Amino acid sequence: RQEQYRKLRDLPCVTRDGVDVALHLNAGLMVDLPHLAETGAAGIGLFRTELQFMISERLPTMSEQIALYRSVLEAAGSRPVTFRTLDIGGDKVLPYMRQMEEENPALGWRAIRIGLDRPGLLRAQIRAMLKAAAGRPLKIMLPMVATVDEFTRAKDLVARERLHLDRHGYEPPSDLRLGVMVEVPSLLFQIEEIAARADFLSVGSNDLMQFLFAADRENPQMANRFDALHPACLRALRLVARAGEKAGIPVTLCGELGGRPLEAMALLALGYRSLSMSPASVGPIKAMLLSLEVARARETVDALIDDAGGLATIRPHLAEFAEKH
Ligand code: PEP
Ligand code: MG
């Protein structure tokens, strides 16, 4: 099987009906970078910057942050990298940072909320990214954004940092894109406003599912209770894809969903053309898409979710479709 997947690596990533798809990797440390060449992935779709903070015994200094981001960009070469700003809090605790006891940490003081309340931390990180990407393209995305206003405030902060570097004579990135993770359901109801302001959207399906169904992603009892192929979830995902299309900005998905063949097939049917996943998933997903006719899948999936009739999942129908085609 591994051998088979390796053979697919150098084939163009195109569906049977000629739709180009980009498969990216989720990463968080330098040890993940060799997987780019091994899998033939198009780039790093999600670089979880909190990993460096979690394995460190104290807050990483600005120069340590710059060094890591620069090594990542260098190792990726011409392949694009999307850095996500710190996503701490919730299940990701930094032992050296004092945090309050929270009854519901997943719903608490975390990610961009900390970034906006402690702008020194976010500013240092943005500055480190901008400096590390001198003369190269840079993509940054913000986790756990719940309102347009949060995005706007973070965007202003990025603009100020950029200006600061210009004023001090640093070479800026050759291209800077600021995106937003769609993982808090409130964004679904502000999707056009956010798509008008962001350079790209990236669905964090792990958290989006958790919050959509109010089902703890860490609780094994909840693991199989709600299916990602439930029409409610697919409608949410379709809404995001369509908003991106309408606004003319790229939409990608970087949760675990994109790494499972049947789910990825549904995503392609809903209009996703870029997915980010763990390295081991690239082979199976590529094998799936090489044999897929997206147009046909789209008809099937649209029909199933428009007329869901109380279905708990479209999984069996989709499996049948996959079997037939
Ligand atoms: C997600 O929520 O889907 C995601 C990609 O981010 P994380 O798993 O790091 O929360
Ligand atoms: Mg998340």
Automatic annotation (TrEMBL):
Family label: Belongs to the PEP-utilizing enzyme family.
Subcellular location: Cytoplasm
Species of the source: Alsobacter ponti
Protein name, UniProt field: phosphoenolpyruvate--protein phosphotransferase
Residues of the full protein shown: 427 to 751 of 755
Domain of life (superkingdom): Bacteria
